[in-house]
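Figure 2 data, in text form.
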Amino acid sequence: VVVPSVVAALFPEEKRSLPMGIWTCWVSIGYIVVLFGTNLLADEATPHTWVIVWWALSAVFVIIFLLVAFLGKMPNGANEVGDVSKEKVTIKNGFSSIPAILCGLIMLFLAVIVVIYSSFVPTYLNLSLGFDLAKANALTSLNSFGMMIGGILMGIALLKIKNKNMALLIFAILTGILSVFVFLFPANLAAVYLFLLGLISQCVMAT
């Protein structure tokens, strides 16, 4: 929630695409840390070891919070960089804005898709395709690597793309098509499918 406002204050509108594309990688980095961290800290044969993962992630959260609280600050003159309107905007204005509503709906549907496949794909790989849990987590992480690459590449591309609405529409449609097969892909295509799904869906978020 905070980062887009920070980016808007630090970069002019025509140069925000790449910083925003990089910022969207936080989701994929988080998934990678969780998936590989679980493989390292939890033991499939000892179910209660999931508690170790929980405490480790809680410790990371506390460290990041302290770093932001004590080291995070806006550089001098940052408030003068963004094109912030002085017009008073109310909550009613936000809910009556068609672009704001459409943007919210797009992110809602994307979030539902991402949460569904990121939560249940490891289970599908394990129970339906026969991969052990460690391999299932590793394969699922390919989706996150695709998301990282997609976010950065789209951030660079948006610096050149003039019709960003059309780009958003194209990648949203592609994401919807790929999502239909999220629990239907065969074992031999798991790696390719998950990587492409992450790559393309992240282009929506970056746009």
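Caption note: The mean pLDDT is 81.
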